[in-house]
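Section 4.2 – Deliverable D4.2 (structural model, holo form)

The reporting period included a commitment to supply a predicted holo structure for the target in complex with acetyl coenzyme *A. Inputs used:
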Amino acid sequence: MPDETISVIDNRTGRRYEIPIRDGAIGAADLQKITTDGPAAGLMSYDPAFLNTAACRSAITFIDGDKGILRYRGYPIEQLAENATFLEVAWLLRHGELPDQKQYDQFVHDITYHTYVHENFRKFLEGFRYDAHPMAMLNSSIAGLASFYPSARNIFDENERNISIIRLLAKTPTIAAFSYRHVKGLPFVYPDNRLSYVENFLSMIARMSESKYEANPTFARALEILFILHADHEQNASTNAVRSVGSSHVDPFSAVSAGVAALFGPLHGGANEQVLRMITEIGNVKNVPKFIEGVKSGEGGRLMGFGHRVYKSYDPRAKIVKRLADDVFKVVGVDKDLEIALELERIALSDDYFTSRKLYPNVDFYTGLIYRSMAFPTDFFTVLFAIARMAGWLAQWEEMLLDKEQKIARPRQLYIGPAERPYRSKLKNSVS
Ligand code: ACO
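Output (structure tokens):
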């Protein structure tokens, strides 16, 4: 029995139980010991949407939501965003330490030489409608990769895991860019091995007839920083989906496609798209007070890009994104709707409805304006998030797989349906 325990007296039976506390948590399985000897089984905990349930131990990302702190493997997000590359961060998330030069060079080489996708992928992507949402294309394409790499199902073979992780990090930008070009009706641009990860992605998006694409350095660095900021965020909805699906020991392509699906939702990664749609709908700064009133009365929907399950003060990523927006606007001019966003933020931060609920701008509030300034279409914003989050999903997937405490994720339920009843058909010609 550990030093720290909690004593529980079951008022139904008068029995007393000592429940161990480990790392600030009690084990939900320990509650099963609390029983009445009657027909009811041991006690369960009830926690819809995991408001207060830790589903794993993780050494990857630390968040202090009250203080607005985010760290990857102990490194503050501000320092990584300022100084690191995205691939350095991807390595860090998976391996727990920053790569040395040799490890980094090898990693960059491996990623660079796995960016091509099988030619059949062209046909696969060409099968989508001209107006397909790029997240729907990305989701099914990532799942489809499993059909090209059947040996990826050997998930307990380290070499297989390694190559699958490299393939996913390398090919996701290619698939994303091909989806973009498909919707635009433009020919696919193949990867250019001379370019960095981010520059190559921008080349596959924007290159036309030039022999080598020269990315705008401000855009390339801004995107690199945005990828770092979005790379991981501990047990968010999409990571939880990846871990949960992966816990059935399916291949990693199938597991992370569940993450793409969860990210698509407007309450999660899809919020960046919705923020821009909301701002466009508001249309003019003078309409902001009315819009805010609509949010407060519940008739106007939510203020997208505000609020977070964990952050109860300013999202540290949002601070960095706001500064980044200034850098991008210096190159392309200030976004026409920045004024609306600033006014929304100003009013919300001084309004009791938002402050009492601790609703602050999250990472998605300003990213849309940056992406639009770089000429990305609105429905492509969440794809950019997915490219970055792939690094976190894969690190979390592998951590889950190697964690001896983990089993197939299988929650319990509180059954509230009918008690047993006899079958009496309501159909006309029933045999009963
Ligand atoms: N606008 C208005 N009211 C809000 C908002 C918002 N954006 N977010 C929460 N609230 C209110 C709720 O109505 C609720 O009020 P009540 O107590 O009077 O009922 C209270 O604040 C608590 O909200 P919950 O929904 O219980 O908070 P939860 O932690 O479940 O939700 C979430 C977090 C989904 C992020 C929510 O704040 C939201 O919908 N935000 C808008 C969408 C968004 O920006 N999502 C991106 C999140 S960041 C990311 O995934 C990358």
